[in-house]
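step: validate -> pass
step: tokenize input -> pass
step: predict -> running
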Amino acid sequence: MDPFCNRELSWLAFNRRVLQEAEDDSVPLMQRLRFLGIYSNNNDEFIKVRLARLVHAAHDVKMRKVLLSGGYTAQELISLIDMDVSAGQRKFTEIYERILEEMAGEGIHVVDETGLDEEQMRFCRGYVLSVVSRRVVPLFLNRTVRLPFLPDDEIYFAVCMDSGGKRKKRFAILQTPVNNSCPRFVRLPSKEGRHDVILLDDIIRLCLDDIFFMFSYERIQAFMFKLVRDASLNLDDGIDKSLLKKMEEGLEQRMRGKPVRFIYDREMPDELACLLVSKLGLKEGAVEPGRRYHMLRDLMKFPVIRQDLEDRPAPPLTHPGITPYSSLFHKISHQDILLAFPYQSFDHVIDFLREAAISPRVESIYITLYRLAYDSKIVTALTSAAKNGKKVTAYVELLARFDEEHNVDVIDTLQEAGVVVIHATPSLKIHSKVILVQCKDQKTDARSYVYVGTGNFNEDTAKIYSDFGLLTSDKAFASDARALFTFLGNMHYRFTCKKFLVSPFDMRRQIGKLIAKEVQNAKKNKKAYILIKCNNITDVKIAKKLYHAGKNGVEIRLIVRSACIIKPQIPLFSENIRAISIVDKYLEHARLMFFCNGGDESVYISSADLMTRNLDRRVEVAAPVLDKRLKKELRCFFEIQWADNAKARDLASLDANDYVPVNGAVPLRAQEALYHYYANRVEGADQ
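step: predict -> pass
step: emit ->
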């Protein structure tokens, strides 16, 4: 028996859990539709990144016979992934059609070009004239002319104009211009009691005659296809180029990555499909016949029509220890504050930076930035601080996958305001979530304030991602944060921390020591346990240590959202390890670690998953939670999630994704229970 699950297959099992949410009747109807969009988007990213790398490995002579986790070669794994993705697509279609029927029962109809009345047809033709026509330019296909580059992440039509008889057919490609001004789903004028919505695709199908009015033909048809390209971002290692220059070249390279999938409407004529495959230089296995519609990730942006069918998240709560219009610095000087998003408001983090930007005591601000909102209040606070004469230094990670271009724009905004921007080398991503605010007043006890978090400084995702942030004035934390930022400004600098666990330096070693201590205590018949909540566990060395701990009597409980290579609950092997995964309306993103430590429990929040890249190739920070109140709060959080019997899946049944059984217990949905938990704390503070 191979001791590990394969990482890719485990991740695909996670995406099937997303698909389960789309199938769950207890989820609001329109949220189920959006889960289909999330599933589709996840699949595309998986193919662009993970599958693309496997394709590279399968074509590398040195890698062909190398066994990957789970005991598979790259080619064997590709075959399994193809079957999994195809099965998932069939399930997707089945669920989508069922949801459309339920939507119709609620008066929301997704119609195509064949089901329009005269008023709706006039609307569509007017829509093409006013919104679409100037955004589309047909590209004609010629067997002797090279096909221009087609970017992926776009929706394309292959158009066939048939003049009849022996005359040659004319072929063209039409790119569908989906953006905020031209959305994928368009609301139509509708009769009373109905809400009709049409895809932009079908508006174009209806109006092909208007778009190709200058050509003569007997019949014109359009068939959708999409490309998925290799999204690996390989950067030139030459030292004669700045990282920004390499980024520009690397992004251009990604834009022009080789196709790894060509998916087309199975109704497309063979002659046209073969022409496209030839022009794109596709190899066998990269071509997949599909259905009429592709790129259904846009379901995430389906228009809001009826609020009663939507998932209306409860408003984020104010932290009970924070009083409006009062100094956060003063509060933090007296006690640590733990923030739990999205249950509590991310505005507290923005207010922390705003106070730093205007406080006359503040001399400098240091921050690590990975993914930011597009209209970021964090950036506004930092630029305001710089304009107020503070020394502001931002360590911006350029290589945040699929956000690289946005981060380059952020750098320009920060630098224009006078913020010093530093970025790391391509081989060492900055993934930690740390702020250090330093004050001028040397006599004040709290001269420095520190924020350490598990999630990004992004007020948009903080509404839907479950994360933690710790605000403290602890001097050891401040010392560690200064050492970290000194290193980020000078990567030859070496340092040790009093409290932080920092990768790639000592986090792996320190976690290993914490696990080993639990093993020692278990062998002495002392209580020993390890509780971990994270997104992924894919590092083999850490997995082996956890297996070893479990075999020696350490109780291990894991809450892992996505990929997990550990096989729990195998008799005589991992029977002391239990693992669940929770997929619900909020994305479970927080990383927590608990170690019994002989009864004096050690608790850490972390920016790092237990993945090789996080432990060895990224700058990550795990911070201990020292305040007993906050340790108790985090343990309550973990136990509430562990008790979930509504949205938790048992990872001992990876392929089946079985829900954790209720077994007579009171039904408990952890995310709802956690909101009530934090709401009760606010009410308690008000009394």
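step: describe -> The longest strand covers residues 219-229.
step: cleanup -> pass
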